[in-house]
Amino acid sequence: MSEAVNVVELAGPQLLGQLINWGLMGALSVQVYLYHIMFPNDPLYLRGFVYGIFAFEWVQTGLITENAFNVFVYNFGDVNNILKFHNSWFSVPIMCGIVSAAVQFFYARRIFLLSGSMALGGVICVLALTQGSAAIASGVLLKDIRTAADQSRTTPAIATWLGGSALADIVIAVTMTFLLLRTKTGFRRSDSLVNKLVRLAIESGTITASVAIVDVVMFAALPQTLYHECPALALAKLYANMLLTSLNNRAFLHAATEVSSTAHTASGFVATIGSAGSRAHELGRGAFGSGTSAGESDTVMRMEVKRELGTDYPMMDFAKRSMASVV
To answer: How far are the Cα atoms of 14, 92, 116, 177 from residue 85, in angstroms, in the given order?
Structure first.
Protein backbone atom coordinates (compact mmCIF):
# COMPACT_ATOMS: atom_id res chain seq x y z
CA MET A 1 0.00 0.00 0.00
CA SER A 2 2.84 2.37 0.85
CA GLU A 3 4.43 1.64 -2.52
CA ALA A 4 1.19 2.52 -4.28
CA VAL A 5 1.02 5.76 -2.34
CA ASN A 6 4.61 6.56 -3.29
CA VAL A 7 3.86 5.94 -6.95
CA VAL A 8 0.93 8.32 -6.79
CA GLU A 9 3.02 11.00 -5.08
CA LEU A 10 5.86 10.59 -7.55
CA ALA A 11 4.16 9.93 -10.88
CA GLY A 12 0.97 11.94 -10.40
CA PRO A 13 2.55 15.42 -10.16
CA GLN A 14 4.83 14.69 -13.12
CA LEU A 15 1.98 13.60 -15.36
CA LEU A 16 -0.23 16.51 -14.34
CA GLY A 17 2.60 19.00 -14.89
CA GLN A 18 3.34 17.57 -18.32
CA LEU A 19 -0.32 17.87 -19.33
CA ILE A 20 -0.46 21.47 -18.13
CA ASN A 21 2.74 22.21 -20.04
CA TRP A 22 1.20 20.91 -23.25
CA GLY A 23 -2.01 22.86 -22.66
CA LEU A 24 -0.12 26.11 -22.09
CA MET A 25 1.97 25.38 -25.18
CA GLY A 26 -1.25 25.29 -27.19
CA ALA A 27 -2.34 28.60 -25.71
CA LEU A 28 1.07 30.09 -26.50
CA SER A 29 0.85 28.89 -30.11
CA VAL A 30 -2.48 30.69 -30.55
CA GLN A 31 -1.06 33.86 -29.00
CA VAL A 32 2.00 33.82 -31.25
CA TYR A 33 -0.24 33.35 -34.30
CA LEU A 34 -2.35 36.35 -33.24
CA TYR A 35 0.81 38.37 -32.70
CA HIS A 36 2.08 37.39 -36.15
CA ILE A 37 -1.05 38.57 -37.97
CA MET A 38 -1.70 41.68 -35.85
CA PHE A 39 1.80 43.15 -35.54
CA PRO A 40 3.76 42.34 -38.72
CA ASN A 41 5.42 45.77 -38.58
CA ASP A 42 6.90 45.46 -35.10
CA PRO A 43 10.67 46.11 -34.90
CA LEU A 44 12.77 43.18 -36.05
CA TYR A 45 14.37 42.72 -32.63
CA LEU A 46 10.96 42.42 -30.95
CA ARG A 47 9.63 39.91 -33.49
CA GLY A 48 12.88 37.96 -33.18
CA PHE A 49 12.51 37.95 -29.41
CA VAL A 50 8.93 36.63 -29.60
CA TYR A 51 9.68 33.93 -32.16
CA GLY A 52 12.85 32.96 -30.29
CA ILE A 53 10.88 32.47 -27.07
CA PHE A 54 8.31 30.46 -29.03
CA ALA A 55 10.95 28.14 -30.51
CA PHE A 56 12.64 27.81 -27.12
CA GLU A 57 9.34 26.77 -25.54
CA TRP A 58 8.76 24.14 -28.20
CA VAL A 59 12.19 22.67 -27.45
CA GLN A 60 11.30 22.53 -23.76
CA THR A 61 7.99 20.83 -24.50
CA GLY A 62 9.79 18.28 -26.67
CA LEU A 63 12.24 17.47 -23.87
CA ILE A 64 9.41 17.17 -21.35
CA THR A 65 7.57 14.83 -23.72
CA GLU A 66 10.70 12.69 -23.92
CA ASN A 67 10.68 12.49 -20.12
CA ALA A 68 7.04 11.42 -20.18
CA PHE A 69 7.84 8.60 -22.60
CA ASN A 70 10.80 7.46 -20.48
CA VAL A 71 8.62 7.22 -17.37
CA PHE A 72 5.21 6.17 -18.66
CA VAL A 73 6.01 4.27 -21.87
CA TYR A 74 9.53 2.86 -22.21
CA ASN A 75 9.92 2.00 -18.51
CA PHE A 76 6.31 1.69 -17.46
CA GLY A 77 5.93 0.09 -14.05
CA ASP A 78 9.53 0.76 -12.95
CA VAL A 79 9.15 2.79 -9.74
CA ASN A 80 12.86 3.51 -9.49
CA ASN A 81 12.78 5.04 -12.96
CA ILE A 82 10.24 7.61 -11.78
CA LEU A 83 12.83 8.96 -9.33
CA LYS A 84 15.37 9.62 -12.07
CA PHE A 85 15.63 13.15 -13.43
CA HIS A 86 16.39 12.13 -17.03
CA ASN A 87 16.70 15.53 -18.78
CA SER A 88 14.61 17.42 -16.19
CA TRP A 89 17.76 18.98 -14.75
CA PHE A 90 17.99 20.98 -17.99
CA SER A 91 14.40 21.23 -19.29
CA VAL A 92 12.91 22.52 -16.02
CA PRO A 93 15.23 24.77 -13.95
CA ILE A 94 17.70 25.90 -16.61
CA MET A 95 15.22 26.51 -19.43
CA CYS A 96 12.67 28.06 -17.09
CA GLY A 97 15.31 30.34 -15.60
CA ILE A 98 16.37 31.53 -19.06
CA VAL A 99 12.79 32.28 -20.16
CA SER A 100 11.82 34.03 -16.93
CA ALA A 101 14.96 36.17 -16.96
CA ALA A 102 14.37 37.14 -20.60
CA VAL A 103 10.76 38.16 -19.88
CA GLN A 104 11.81 40.11 -16.79
CA PHE A 105 14.47 41.95 -18.81
CA PHE A 106 11.72 42.87 -21.28
CA TYR A 107 9.63 44.36 -18.48
CA ALA A 108 12.68 46.14 -17.07
CA ARG A 109 13.12 47.87 -20.43
CA ARG A 110 9.44 48.82 -20.51
CA ILE A 111 9.64 50.27 -17.01
CA PHE A 112 12.74 52.26 -17.97
CA LEU A 113 10.91 53.72 -20.98
CA LEU A 114 7.84 54.61 -18.93
CA SER A 115 9.69 56.08 -15.95
CA GLY A 116 13.01 57.20 -17.41
CA SER A 117 14.64 55.78 -14.28
CA MET A 118 17.69 53.60 -14.80
CA ALA A 119 17.61 52.67 -11.11
CA LEU A 120 14.21 50.98 -11.38
CA GLY A 121 15.18 49.09 -14.50
CA GLY A 122 18.54 48.21 -12.99
CA VAL A 123 17.00 46.69 -9.85
CA ILE A 124 14.76 44.43 -11.92
CA CYS A 125 17.68 43.44 -14.17
CA VAL A 126 19.76 42.49 -11.12
CA LEU A 127 16.91 40.38 -9.71
CA ALA A 128 16.36 38.72 -13.09
CA LEU A 129 20.06 37.97 -13.51
CA THR A 130 20.29 36.59 -9.97
CA GLN A 131 17.35 34.24 -10.28
CA GLY A 132 18.42 33.16 -13.77
CA SER A 133 21.93 32.33 -12.53
CA ALA A 134 20.49 30.44 -9.55
CA ALA A 135 18.26 28.46 -11.92
CA ILE A 136 21.26 27.41 -14.00
CA ALA A 137 23.15 26.47 -10.82
CA SER A 138 20.15 24.43 -9.68
CA GLY A 139 20.16 22.49 -12.93
CA VAL A 140 23.88 21.77 -12.68
CA LEU A 141 23.44 20.49 -9.12
CA LEU A 142 20.46 18.32 -10.09
CA LYS A 143 22.46 16.77 -12.93
CA ASP A 144 24.93 15.33 -10.42
CA ILE A 145 22.13 13.82 -8.29
CA ARG A 146 21.07 10.32 -9.25
CA THR A 147 17.50 10.31 -7.85
CA ALA A 148 14.89 12.71 -6.48
CA ALA A 149 15.46 11.28 -3.00
CA ASP A 150 18.68 13.33 -2.77
CA GLN A 151 17.32 16.57 -4.21
CA SER A 152 17.18 18.33 -0.82
CA ARG A 153 20.87 19.19 -1.26
CA THR A 154 19.89 21.67 -3.94
CA THR A 155 17.39 23.52 -1.74
CA PRO A 156 19.47 26.75 -1.33
CA ALA A 157 19.98 27.16 -5.07
CA ILE A 158 16.38 26.33 -5.95
CA ALA A 159 15.06 28.61 -3.20
CA THR A 160 17.18 31.45 -4.60
CA TRP A 161 15.92 30.77 -8.11
CA LEU A 162 12.21 30.60 -7.30
CA GLY A 163 12.29 33.19 -4.53
CA GLY A 164 14.22 35.63 -6.71
CA SER A 165 11.84 35.03 -9.59
CA ALA A 166 8.80 35.71 -7.39
CA LEU A 167 10.41 38.86 -5.98
CA ALA A 168 11.22 40.18 -9.45
CA ASP A 169 7.63 39.56 -10.59
CA ILE A 170 6.23 41.38 -7.55
CA VAL A 171 8.54 44.36 -8.10
CA ILE A 172 7.53 44.50 -11.77
CA ALA A 173 3.80 44.34 -10.96
CA VAL A 174 4.02 47.03 -8.27
CA THR A 175 6.18 49.34 -10.40
CA MET A 176 4.02 48.96 -13.51
CA THR A 177 0.90 49.65 -11.45
CA PHE A 178 2.39 52.82 -9.99
CA LEU A 179 3.64 54.09 -13.36
CA LEU A 180 0.36 53.37 -15.14
CA LEU A 181 -1.71 55.06 -12.44
CA ARG A 182 0.41 58.18 -12.94
CA THR A 183 -0.80 58.39 -16.54
CA LYS A 184 -4.41 59.00 -15.51
CA THR A 185 -5.76 62.17 -17.08
CA GLY A 186 -9.16 62.53 -15.42
CA PHE A 187 -10.95 61.59 -18.65
CA ARG A 188 -13.26 58.62 -18.22
CA ARG A 189 -12.24 56.73 -21.37
CA SER A 190 -8.49 57.06 -20.94
CA ASP A 191 -8.71 56.26 -17.21
CA SER A 192 -10.74 53.15 -18.03
CA LEU A 193 -7.94 51.93 -20.29
CA VAL A 194 -5.40 52.65 -17.57
CA ASN A 195 -7.40 50.57 -15.10
CA LYS A 196 -7.49 47.65 -17.53
CA LEU A 197 -3.74 47.83 -18.05
CA VAL A 198 -3.21 47.95 -14.29
CA ARG A 199 -5.31 44.81 -13.84
CA LEU A 200 -3.31 43.05 -16.55
CA ALA A 201 0.00 44.01 -14.90
CA ILE A 202 -1.18 42.83 -11.47
CA GLU A 203 -2.65 39.59 -12.79
CA SER A 204 0.45 38.75 -14.83
CA GLY A 205 2.84 39.34 -11.94
CA THR A 206 0.58 37.62 -9.42
CA ILE A 207 0.20 34.44 -11.47
CA THR A 208 3.89 33.83 -12.08
CA ALA A 209 4.93 34.91 -8.56
CA SER A 210 2.28 32.69 -6.94
CA VAL A 211 3.30 29.63 -8.94
CA ALA A 212 6.98 30.20 -8.10
CA ILE A 213 6.17 30.55 -4.38
CA VAL A 214 4.00 27.41 -4.39
CA ASP A 215 6.81 25.54 -6.14
CA VAL A 216 9.51 26.49 -3.63
CA VAL A 217 7.22 25.80 -0.64
CA MET A 218 6.38 22.33 -1.95
CA PHE A 219 10.03 21.63 -2.69
CA ALA A 220 11.12 22.58 0.84
CA ALA A 221 8.15 21.12 2.75
CA LEU A 222 7.74 17.84 0.83
CA PRO A 223 11.26 16.76 -0.12
CA GLN A 224 10.40 13.07 -0.51
CA THR A 225 7.74 13.72 -3.13
CA LEU A 226 7.61 15.28 -6.58
CA TYR A 227 4.65 17.57 -5.92
CA HIS A 228 6.82 20.56 -6.76
CA GLU A 229 7.33 19.32 -10.33
CA CYS A 230 3.74 20.15 -11.28
CA PRO A 231 4.10 23.96 -10.89
CA ALA A 232 7.73 23.81 -12.05
CA LEU A 233 6.73 22.23 -15.38
CA ALA A 234 4.20 25.01 -15.98
CA LEU A 235 6.29 28.01 -14.94
CA ALA A 236 8.20 28.65 -18.17
CA LYS A 237 5.02 28.49 -20.24
CA LEU A 238 3.30 30.94 -17.89
CA TYR A 239 6.07 33.48 -18.39
CA ALA A 240 5.89 33.15 -22.17
CA ASN A 241 2.10 33.43 -22.19
CA MET A 242 2.16 36.52 -19.97
CA LEU A 243 4.65 38.13 -22.35
CA LEU A 244 2.44 37.50 -25.39
CA THR A 245 -0.66 38.64 -23.52
CA SER A 246 1.06 41.93 -22.80
CA LEU A 247 2.12 42.40 -26.43
CA ASN A 248 -1.21 41.38 -27.96
CA ASN A 249 -3.07 43.65 -25.56
CA ARG A 250 -1.87 46.56 -27.72
CA ALA A 251 -4.46 45.59 -30.34
CA PHE A 252 -7.24 46.06 -27.82
CA LEU A 253 -5.73 49.32 -26.62
CA HIS A 254 -5.39 50.63 -30.18
CA ALA A 255 -8.95 49.62 -31.12
CA ALA A 256 -10.46 51.11 -27.98
CA THR A 257 -8.52 54.33 -28.52
CA GLU A 258 -9.71 54.66 -32.12
CA VAL A 259 -13.35 54.10 -31.17
CA SER A 260 -13.10 56.52 -28.26
CA SER A 261 -11.30 59.19 -30.30
CA THR A 262 -13.82 58.85 -33.14
CA ALA A 263 -16.74 59.27 -30.75
CA HIS A 264 -15.01 62.17 -29.03
CA THR A 265 -14.23 63.88 -32.34
CA ALA A 266 -17.77 63.40 -33.65
CA SER A 267 -19.37 64.87 -30.54
CA GLY A 268 -16.85 67.72 -30.57
CA PHE A 269 -17.68 68.41 -34.22
CA VAL A 270 -21.41 68.71 -33.47
CA ALA A 271 -20.76 71.02 -30.54
CA THR A 272 -18.36 73.09 -32.64
CA ILE A 273 -20.87 73.48 -35.45
CA GLY A 274 -23.39 74.74 -32.91
CA SER A 275 -21.04 77.19 -31.24
CA ALA A 276 -19.54 78.35 -34.52
CA GLY A 277 -23.01 78.74 -36.01
CA SER A 278 -24.08 80.89 -33.10
CA ARG A 279 -20.93 82.96 -33.52
CA ALA A 280 -21.59 83.39 -37.22
CA HIS A 281 -25.20 84.31 -36.53
CA GLU A 282 -24.09 87.00 -34.11
CA LEU A 283 -21.68 88.34 -36.70
CA GLY A 284 -24.41 88.26 -39.30
CA ARG A 285 -26.76 90.21 -37.05
CA GLY A 286 -24.06 92.78 -36.43
CA ALA A 287 -23.41 93.20 -40.15
CA PHE A 288 -26.02 95.93 -40.46
CA GLY A 289 -24.28 98.03 -37.83
CA SER A 290 -20.67 96.99 -38.12
CA GLY A 291 -20.33 96.15 -41.76
CA THR A 292 -19.45 92.44 -41.21
CA SER A 293 -20.37 90.44 -44.31
CA ALA A 294 -21.92 86.97 -44.62
CA GLY A 295 -18.66 85.74 -46.21
CA GLU A 296 -16.70 86.85 -43.16
CA SER A 297 -19.10 85.06 -40.82
CA ASP A 298 -18.71 81.87 -42.90
CA THR A 299 -14.94 82.21 -42.66
CA VAL A 300 -15.18 82.54 -38.88
CA MET A 301 -17.27 79.36 -38.66
CA ARG A 302 -14.77 77.40 -40.75
CA MET A 303 -11.89 78.58 -38.58
CA GLU A 304 -13.75 77.61 -35.39
CA VAL A 305 -14.49 74.08 -36.72
CA LYS A 306 -10.88 73.58 -37.87
CA ARG A 307 -9.49 74.75 -34.55
CA GLU A 308 -11.74 72.36 -32.57
CA LEU A 309 -11.06 69.35 -34.74
CA GLY A 310 -7.33 69.92 -34.42
CA THR A 311 -7.41 69.45 -30.63
CA ASP A 312 -4.95 66.86 -29.29
CA TYR A 313 -7.06 64.79 -26.91
CA PRO A 314 -5.49 63.21 -23.81
CA MET A 315 -6.69 59.79 -24.97
CA MET A 316 -4.47 59.97 -28.03
CA ASP A 317 -1.45 61.04 -25.97
CA PHE A 318 -2.06 58.24 -23.49
CA ALA A 319 -2.27 55.61 -26.24
CA LYS A 320 0.96 56.82 -27.82
CA ARG A 321 2.83 56.69 -24.50
CA SER A 322 1.47 53.27 -23.56
CA MET A 323 2.23 51.60 -26.89
CA ALA A 324 5.63 53.27 -27.23
CA SER A 325 6.72 51.62 -23.99
CA VAL A 326 6.24 48.20 -25.59
CA VAL A 327 8.27 48.62 -28.75
So the answer is: 11, 10, 44, 39
What does the pLDDT average to over 252-270? 53
This prediction has a pTM of 0.77
Q: What is the DSSP string of 11-41?
A: HHHHHHHHHHHHHHHHHHHHHHHHHHHH-TT
CB 169 within 8 A of CB 208: yes
Grouping H, G, I as helix, E, B as strand and the rest as coil, residue 292 is coil
- What phi and psi values does residue 270 have, to the nearest 5 degrees? -65, -45
Per-residue pLDDT tens digits for 111-143: 998 888 899 999 999 999 999 999 999 999 988
Separation between Cα atoms, residue 109 and residue 91, nearest integer Å: 27
Interatomic CA distance for residues 177 and 282, integer angstroms? 50
pLDDT above 50 for 273: no
Separation between Cα atoms, residue 134 and residue 129, nearest integer Å: 9
Of 247, 259, 248, nearest to 316 (Cα)? 259
